[in-house]
């Protein structure tokens, strides 16, 4: 009976997987990847529940509770870092549960998934850090070649050099340092481990936030500005933000015949001839957007001001606060922009424009550093605790060795 059910579930899944792209092609928003992932997850959850029912147990309720907690917090407020932590807690509990279920059932599908997962984890443990180093050095060379030698473009290179120095020193530290000093040196790897967890949670929620699917009922689309080339020309990175807004503008126009206003947000920098929003408006007009559909905000100097000043313009234009709005930016900047929207009390989520793959590692590192600085007090407290703990252990080791 179990094998027949597995075959039936497999057939149902394959039928759905083939039908989803066809179904999405008939929609205004033709993206199908999110729905493929959702369909696989639903089929797999249903299959796991069936296995539990066969055993007359209900342990699946434990990971389900973590999943529901994440979904409740996420849909209540998508723009929170804690959502990444909640999702990763669900993954840890879920993977543990599936491992126990595999031992109890010896199910072939679970065996295949466990084998794939085990192979990936083994490779990560075996060569993960060294592969990361090679990737970081390669990425740094590409970024410096294509984007220039600014400090912001050096982040992957600096991280690669830092990790290289750490690995070399960590290899020799036990040979050249006394025991108490080696314990004290543990401050660095523990702090790195803490920040790697923080980064993983940030990356998790940043990726999940990319799947935001706004309804076609928007009154405004805010396009967040960035620097101009020669103080007057829209660069490709900013152009993608504008084109993302235009894409949604046209999609909503086809779906509802009620096009939103596009609000270009960006002031004039010290090295710019015109306000960014003016150049952005001209760019959109050249792409076929009517001038009357475009608003401009010309005073902001950063993302938080983008949100605050845009909110004021939307309230004046709409004649109240009961409007629907979203913002567009590049995908790596999407989640942090959402945090700024929340800080500005603007009820808006974002959609991200695609960015060249080579630029993403450096860009996400920059975003992570900015988010760490937004919560620096919390991180200083944790790092201070780690430092104090290791100092006490080093002192204990020093006096115990001296005493002996």
Automatic annotation (TrEMBL):
| Residue intervals of the DUF218 domain | 219-368
Q: Pfam families, alphabetically?
A: DUF218 (PF02698)
Identify the CDD domains for this entry: YdcF-like
- A GO CC term? plasma membrane
A GO biological process of this protein is:
peptidoglycan metabolic process
TM regions (residue ranges): 6-22, 34-51, 57-75, 82-103, 109-138, 150-173, 179-203, 380-401
Which of UniProt's keywords are assigned here? Membrane, Transmembrane, Transmembrane helix
Q: Does the keyword NAD apply?
A: no
For this entry, the protein name equals DUF218 domain-containing protein
